[in-house]
Design goal:
Elements: H1 3-17, E1 20-21, H2 22-29, H3 33-45, E2 49-52, E3 55-58, H4 68-71, H5 76-87, E4 95-98, H6 102-110, E5 116-120, H7 123-128, E6 135-139, E7 143-145, E8 150-152, H8 154-161, E9 165-170, E10 174-176, E11 180-183, H9 186-198, E12 199-205, E13 217-220, E14 227-230, H10 236-243, E15 248-251
Parallel strand pairs: 4-5, 4-9, 5-6, 9-12, 12-14, 14-15
Antiparallel strand pairs: 1-3, 2-3, 7-8, 10-11, 11-13
Helix pairs in contact: 2-3, 5-6, 8-9
Length: 252
């Protein structure tokens, strides 16, 4: 097997499995562990994989986006802390937008006992609030993306444009000082951008691993957010770089 074929296989394994390990890849592809390490270095340089201890995980691209199951297993403790801090950012809001994604779903669960109207494109967020006796849920509708269980396209956009929302809890695939707030899919970016535009106050929730990453579609500037909530895993000096662009960065 030539190196190009082997590297394509490694990317496919990473995307289907969520993570690949050096020894297992070496055995499966019948090459030396050093060969696998060189392959992972090349693929990391192409921004297809991210090196982690002992192996690699897939990076999201315009052609690949991780699903809900994978997201629910990564940085899990950190995401629960972020969601808890985010739920305390209502500050009297009565209408709330909850974005798609696993961390926003955790936020939705924590809002279930509040007196609110929640607008969402996410079936997962709507499901988390389905049995609440105090929250009115408005699901935007539109084309459902199977990978993230969220609605996109014109049906969702048309309804969202007609609203004025107090606070939006937004997630992201990447945030960087160079490219702002980004996501791989144009349809998702359009919904996110509209939610940012119709909301009076915006809170971004992002695990530390999202920082320094950029993707195909930019949907907001860092300065569009009043608050960014992340984990203490993000170094304080990195958080300060983002605070200089406008938002208050909360590390939990």
């Amino acid at each position: 097997m030539d190196s190009d074929t082997r590297q394509r296989q490694i990317v496919e394994f990473a995307r289907s499995r969520g993570r690949v390990e050096v020894p297992a890849l070496a055995a499966e592809l019948q090459v030396a562990t050093e060969t696998i390490r060189r392959d992972l270095k090349v693929l990391a340089g192409r921004r297809l994989l991210k090196r982690v201890h002992g192996g690699a995980v897939p990076l999201e691209t315009a052609a690949f986006e991780s699903g809900v199951e994978f997201r629910s297993q990564v940085d899990l403790a950190q995401k629960h802390r972020i969601a808890g801090a985010a739920a305390e950012q209502l500050h009297g809001a009565e209408t709330v937008y909850v974005d798609e994604g696993f961390t926003p779903r955790l936020i939705a669960q924590l809002l279930a006992d509040r007196q609110l109207t929640v607008v969402t494109a996410s079936l997962l967020a709507a499901e988390a609030l389905a049995h609440s006796e105090t929250v009115t849920v408005l699901l935007l509708g539109g084309r459902m993306r199977g990978r993230t269980l969220a609605c996109v396209d014109e049906w969702a956009l048309e309804r969202l444009r007609s609203l004025v929302i107090d606070v939006a809890y937004m997630g992201t695939n990447g945030i960087s000082t160079e490219h702002g707030i980004t996501t791989p899919d144009p349809a998702v970016a359009a919904v996110k951008k509209t939610a940012v535009q119709v909301s009076s106050r915006r809170v971004l929730v992002a695990a530390h691993s999202k920082f320094g990453e950029s993707h195909f579609c930019r949907f907001a500037d860092i300065a569009d957010f009043q608050t960014i909530i992340t984990g203490t895993e993000l170094p304080a000096h990195e958080a300060h770089r983002y605070e200089l662009l406008g938002p208050n960065v909360i590390r939990v």
